[in-house]
Amino acid sequence: MYWRLNRIQYPIYNLGLGKRLGIWVQGCSLKCEGCISQSLWTTKNGKDIEIDLLVNQIAQLQEHFDGITITGGEPFEQYEALVVFSAYIKQKTTLDIYVFSGYTLEELQAKFPDRLFMKYMDYLMDGRYVKELHDNNNFRGSTNQGFYKFDDGRAAQLKSDSFSNNKWSVAVSKNKQIFMAGIPKRDELKMLTEDLNQAGIAIRFK
Fold this sequence. Notes:
By secondary structure, the protein is α/β, with parallel strands linked by helices. The chain has one domain: TIM Barrel, CATH 3.20.20. It is about 25% helix and about 25% strand. The protein has five helices and ten strands. The chain has helices at about 50-60, 80-90, 105-110, 115-120, 190-200; strands at about 1-10, 20-25, 45-50, 65-70, 95-100, 125, 145-150, 155-160, 170, 180. The strands form two sheets. It has an eight-stranded mixed β-sheet with strand order 3-1-2-4-5-6-7-8. Strands 9-10 form a two-stranded antiparallel sheet. Helix 1 (about 50-60) runs parallel beside helix 2. The radius of gyration is 17 Å and the shape is globular.
């Protein structure tokens, strides 16, 4: 089975607890206003990755990480691949799994009554990004979004406590693109762009 992904980035430190491996899926039909990842909306970008191969590679590296964070794009718009990947990870590693989704938990439970995602994933950040409710916190986009812990498919516990880390995780691709993992505070990208432009460095966020 193949999974349409935009990129795999590691290590990241600000989309979950500890040192993590980040997976960005390609494709999202929700298209929230103010989204900072609009290049991930289309399914024409990205690359199809074989899940078996990916899981085996992660299993060999698992001792270097505390968990996996899956974001996008919209992970649940490739539900079968998402569940298969998560089930294999749970079978072959001890890593926990965080998933960031624009769908609410109630929507996901209605769309996927098998609730397998609650069995194979550990944490969910749910809800669409609402520009007017932007949260000046680097662990979620807007204040309407909820953070849940799953109990082996039986229950979802809404958690008031969360992870917090003000670090930006940065990676440079082979084609010299810079990827920053994290949820920016209000006007943070604007200020960064202005500072770099003043230093003679042209930058454009996609």
